[in-house]
Specification:
By secondary structure, the chain is α+β, with helices and mostly antiparallel strands. The chain has nine helices and 24 strands. The strands form three sheets. It has an eleven-stranded antiparallel beta sheet, covered by helices on one side. Strands 12-13-14-15-16-17-18 form a seven-stranded mixed beta sheet. Strands 19-20-21-22-23-24 form a six-stranded mixed beta sheet. Strand 13 and strand 14 form a beta hairpin. Helix 1 runs antiparallel to helix 3. The protein is elongated.
Length: 492
């Protein structure tokens, strides 16, 4: 091929590529415009009805089923629910009347207010994706983002249904440096049926957030879905049944004002310096405490390894606990990490211990949750487990499990029924006469234990676990507690 012909081919090739890119961009622009037109080209929208939500990794306060059945079951009802989306700001807020669960695992229910918002500042796509995504996973917010960012398009089939999938990324990057991605699934009527994205979560890794919008209905020249379902990490998270809607309201800024106590977020101040204060409970057996507000852990030495019990609080605290563990019991690996129950404040430090190669010991009702969550890729995170990715193993306890090397013995027991979780475990040390538990917090001296504490004693009696003296809570009290104090709290 001579030089002139080569240059001609190259020019045609470049021209063909440019034309293809132009056509692709036109197709994407057309898809976005068609979808916005199908929804009514609204500037703002509000809808109302009833909803249900959960505190992540928790459940309860349903007013009907007060004992947790499983992860996120039951959900908490929200009545008089209203959502407001202002595309001009852009901003979003939603709220309603709900129920609050009593403290310390109690099922005592009190009236409360649900309110969440994405302010115009939070909606800035150079800011935190976790703070803004609640707006952008709505059909209207997604399409606004797609129209204002570099968006690509492809076709996918899900469960036999074919969709046009639009994808774009916010400006902000994940802690790992990776780009976030948000996908919107448009059906053949140009309606947004699903929106998905991912955000880094301490336990769920690259947590998949998936919102479905179904039952689209014409409310007077514009369409709104009558049902919304959102899952996080594959678990139910938020649901809405919509009965009324309006669009392009003149008073959009005044609809659903923030409650007086809603707050505006902001910085949390400097992290406190962590000083670990070990208490020797026996030979090779320690309680690790970090001062006021401590989430305590226990460490136990076996012949060729260490068991840590509980990894709550946060990464920094557990990193300090591990450093102290290696000082107190050198040259032995942490092989096990026992979890009392899967609530987020009791799992926050798990990734740090798992990066050491530890196996999780948990009650059998939590096994699926932990296996799925902790083995999800962590490409968006920059923590110990993300930097040292590995298969996480989960060892399940049904009613009872005994860990012993012939010298040291630890017994694990499932406490059920108890209102706080269906996957609660306590650890019993028969030689040292110690009971270790999470969230069975005792009242002030002379007070009466709540129904969660009241549930513990009959469970222990049924299991035959009554020969202990020291009563240690993950949530460390100011003074040491005893079996006698627990028995007093339940009137024994």
């Amino acid at each position: 091929m001579n030089k002139k012909l080569t240059m001609a081919v190259l020019c045609l090739s470049f021209l063909g590529s440019s034309v293809a890119n132009t056509v692709m961009a036109q197709n994407v622009d057309t898809a976005i415009a068609d979808a916005q037109r199908a929804l009514g080209n609204v500037r703002s929208v509000t809808y109302s009805g009833s909803a249900r939500n959960v505190a992540f990794q928790q459940c309860g306060a349903s007013g009907v089923a007060l004992i947790c059945n499983s992860t996120h079951d039951p959900m908490r009802p929200i009545t008089n629910y209203t959502s407001v989306i202002n595309l001009a700001a852009p901003a979003m807020r939603h709220g309603g009347d709900t129920m609050n669960m009593g403290g310390g695992g109690s099922t005592a229910i009190s009236a409360g207010t649900f309110f969440q918002q994405v302010t115009a500042q939070q909606a800035d796509l150079s800011e935190s994706w976790a703070s803004s995504l609640e707006l952008y996973i709505t059909p209207w917010g997604f399409l606004k983002g797609a129209a204002e960012n570099a968006t690509t398009s492809n076709r996918r089939t899900i469960n036999g249904a074919s969709y046009t999938v639009l994808s774009w990324s916010p400006e902000v990057k994940a802690p790992s440096g990776a780009s976030y991605v948000i996908n919107g699934y448009l059906n053949d009527d140009n309606l947004v049926e699903h929106v998905e994205t991912w955000v880094g979560n301490n336990i769920m890794g690259d947590m998949h957030i998936f919102a479905s919008y179904t039952g689209w209905r014409d409310f007077g020249g514009f369409l709104v879905p009558t049902q919304i379902e959102q899952t996080r990490g594959g678990w139910p998270y938020f649901e809405v049944d919509i009965t009324a809607a309006d669009a392009n309201m003149r008073n959009v800024a005044s609809i659903l004002p923030a409650p007086a106590n809603a707050g505006g977020g902001g910085g949390g101040g400097n992290a406190r310096e962590i000083t670990v204060m070990p208490e020797r409970l026996g030979d090779g057996f320690y309680r690790l405490n970090s001062g006021p507000g401590s989430y305590d852990s226990l460490i136990v030495e076996f012949e060729d390894h260490i068991m840590m019990l509980e990894a709550g609080a946060n990464h920094a605290v557990i990193e300090a606990y591990i450093e102290e563990t290696k000082r107190l019991i050198p040259n032995k690996p942490i092989r096990y990490i026992m979890n009392t129950h899967p609530h987020s404040d009791h799992t926050a430090g798990l990734p740090v211990v798992l990066a050491e190669g530890a196996t999780v010991i948990t009650q059998a009702n939590n096994q699926e949750f932990f296996e799925r969550a902790l083995n999800t890729p962590r490409t968006l995170l920059d923590d110990a487990l993300a930097r040292n990715p590995q298969k996480v193993w989960v060892e399940a306890v049904n009613t009872k499990a005994v860990y012993t090397d012939g010298t040291r013995t630890v017994e694990m027991y499932h406490i059920y029924p108890a209102p706080h979780s269906n996957g609660l475990m306590v650890a019993y040390f028969p030689e040292e006469k110690v009971l270790f538990q999470g969230d069975f917090s005792l009242p002030a001296p002379g007070g009466v234990g709540n129904d969660h504490v009241q549930a513990l004693v009959p469970a222990l009696e049924k299991l035959g676990v009554t020969d202990f003296e020291r009563y240690i809570n993950v949530h460390a009290p100011a003074e040491p507690q005893t079996k006698a104090m627990l028995w007093d709290a339940v009137g024994k």
